[in-house]
Specification:
The complex is a heterotrimer of chains A (276), B (428) and C (288). Chain A is an all-alpha fold and 276 residues long. Chain A contains 14 helices and no strands. Chain A folds into 2 domains: 55 residues; 211 residues, MetI-like (MetI-like fold, Orthogonal Bundle). The chains are: A mainly alpha (276), B alpha/beta (428), C mainly alpha (288).
Chain lengths: 276, 428, 288
Amino acid sequence: MARAKSIGKSVSFLVLLVLAFVFLFPFFWMFLTTVKSDGELFLFPPSWVPQQWMWSNYLKTLQAVPFLRFTINSLIISVTNVLAIFFSCSLAAYALARYSFRGKTLVFNAIVASMIIPIHIIILPQYLLFNSIKWLDTFLPLIVPSLLGYSLGTFLLRQFFLTIPRDLDDAAMMDGAGSLKILLKVYIPLSAGAFITIGLFMFVFQWNDLLRPVIFLSSRNKMPLPVGLINMMGQYTVQFNLLMCGALLSIVPVMILFLIAQRYYIEGIAMTAIKG
Amino acid sequence: MKRNRLLIVTLLLLLAAGFCVEAAGQEESSASGVTIKYMWWTPVYEPYIQGAIEKFHSENPGISVEYETLAFDPYWQKVQNLFAAGNPPDAFDMSVVFVWDFADKGSVLDIEDFVSRDIDKYYRKPIDMERYPDAGGKPYAMPYQWVASMLYYNEDAFDAAGVGYPTRDWDYETLIQTSKKLTADTDGDGKADRYGFFSNAAHTFLDSMIKAYGGEVLSSDYSTCKITEPAALQVIQKCVDMIQKDKSAPVAASYDALLVSGGEMFRSGKIAMTIDGSYMIDSFKDVPFEWDATMVPKGPVKRSIYGGPDGISIAKTTAHPDETWAFVKFMTGADRPKETWIPGGVSITKSVASSSDWTDMHKQWISEPKDLLDAAQYMEGADFCTKWLEWRINTINAELAPAFVGQKSVADAARAAKAAVEKVLQSK
Amino acid sequence: MVRKKYEAWLFLGPSLLGLVFMIYGPVAAVFGLGFTHYDVLRPAEWAGLSNYISIFSNPLFWKVLWNTVYFALGTGVVGIFFSLILAMLINVDIPLQGIFRTIFFLPVVVSMVAASFIWRWMLNSHFGVFNYLLQTVGISGPLWLDDPRWTMFGIIIMTLWKMVGYNMIIFLAGLKNIPREFYQAAQIDGAGWSTRLFRITLPLLSPTTFFVIIVSLINAFLVFEQTYVITNGGPANATLTFALHIFNNAFLYFKMGYASALAFLFFIIILLVTMIQIGLQKRWVYYD
């Protein structure tokens, strides 16, 4: 029995090892491509060690397109979205978790149901709406919706809030605290983990989002990284070395963030599944 | 209390930053006089256009021009968005591919009066291509240049194969036969490393070949698709045969800018000849081999060369039509600084086109610039009309692609293409 | 303890505005716009059912539907299978579990655009490394992105690489939730691995699997970014998926009415598929 088990373990380990290399290969290839020269790119069979390490490609990329601006735009959009959902979701979750009023179930169900409505469907009328109020080509259409709620965030926070003992509320109220104060001083600090999780989700999602910026923005100086990269592809269609530089530079921040905070991110995903 | 104050302040600061970024993105603008907005594609030419605009400013102190440039696809998205928002640029570069769409929607100004004053100075045909028949045949864009397809060839490849260079007397049959001689397996691995030609369904190549054999892509009233007729069908078959039978052209499903294109294959030396727009001269400037270009070959019925104007249109709702026309006239006339001449572009003004400056500039790259100038008399478009993007690029290329990769017979693919194209033409 | 009820409505204010103006309002708008012809520059005109008739009589639509279903089956169904296997492999008591988990999940966090760049280059028919690697094991690779028959397959492979880690995490959580006692009891009864798998693991995992299937299928139907970035729907419309088709009609041709009809249809299809799943749930999902 023990033999079989350890053979099973070894086989698992080996298979996983091979798969791990397979999964990491595209990243390796991306990096390799970034340091190849234009001519070396189109060698077939492809070269595995660059003839010359063209680190200058990174410089070329930064000069070819306003990469810094793209990054700053991404940063602004991502961070403000995170703050926006902290605002709207904590308020809504608090109301749903701690108050009873007519229509509460309806509102809650409406929020949950809205989670399966795909963005691709409602983005058309959103475009027309934002067009009519002249918000197109500004960051507003990318941020305001988060100020007006984020269903998954509200849902998760509400579930979390429900687990906080009501005694804490009572104690705070006896000290004369109003509801808002209770939310800020009691609930939010106790749910720090949940906030970090939904904050991470939103940050990564916004950093990587292509659909909304490509539809709502058109000026080059407002483009976040994904759109900036697409633009770069239009101008430097087949200069894959530069394109890979762009891709690599764009994923480094998120990769670092993820490696630092992966516990929260991964647990968060598991959480959505369990609660869902 | 402190913490949420901090939060609110941060949120507001970042929102403010967002607005500032947007405001800061505006290009230069002037405080006095009339201000007009101009947009064009190809950001690479910004320094030259900037120079031209500065010259215009010095000659027209009461008018100041704000400008913006974007790459082709995002440029059109932004222009269309601006029109949709009711805030279009006063002047903007117009592609002959879209001029009907804009005219049809009543977005651009008819410039017949402006143009007719000096009509003799200009090449007629490109201006005619900017005319929209459904609105009295008025022109809706003023061309500043026209471009035409040329036959590019890799001299080193020809030398290696011991074959004579193409001349303007070539016809398509010669091209097809020579292609076979230029296909070579240089490293002996059984696969061709260089092909003779890049055969595809691109409008810069296929449509003119069809016309040269007496065929048509669309009927003259733009209502039916005629590629199932014998002449057109025969041409498509020849193009497909180059890939599948002769193996003298590589397999590529579509001439799509997203994939490795004919231009790129020529640059990397993988194909010896390609027919492409004269604007490709710019991207071939720095290739590591000797190359040249000549006229597109003739067909049995006639010589037809794909070409068309690049022009500037004026928004119908512009608040300053006269000032905008003054700017457009400057940008399209003899005053346009020669630093802004785009390699492979021919000025609409005949005197400029035949000037020694222009010839000298192009002699750097092609041995006979006259081969490009003379293309004007054979120039035909690719049936530009409304919804052109949808039926020519997205539909015809998609429906013919299976034939080019050998998965469908040419007749079947053409039939499917005809049905799909006519569906688009009839749709609203 | 009395809480003022108006406070609840105040707190819900932003979210309610969002539900109305950003979500449900647009759904109603898309429904209405589907009955018009509207190009944004000129006022909308009533078109009755002509958009829908146009959709169903257009062979392109059926191709788009097929492309999307093919993709959904490839990444949804096959992907779930792979995710589960990965999760089960990692769940075994082996060293470096955390590192493996991170490695397989890494592709999930990078942007789809960046991933698309990488794979567009790797799958390049003439210079890509993918075909080169196939060559070394004796397979003559197809012309991936140039061949209408193989492009979608290439995009499916790319999406599997990108998304398998996500469901793997969910399955890992689900597996960890299965109480050890079951396996211990099974061992005492002398049950072999296949009995353990089919009688314990899979049934107890079924709520998780159910969740994964629903979410993965919906997300697979929505595929947009890869097809937009890598192939733009080509070649020969082989990778033209529903979301991209809607995008083209709305933002390339500015046919807002037609695009809305497509979008609403899309919504109904997704809703139907989800409801069918939920209905079937009683048949195979085991809740304790």
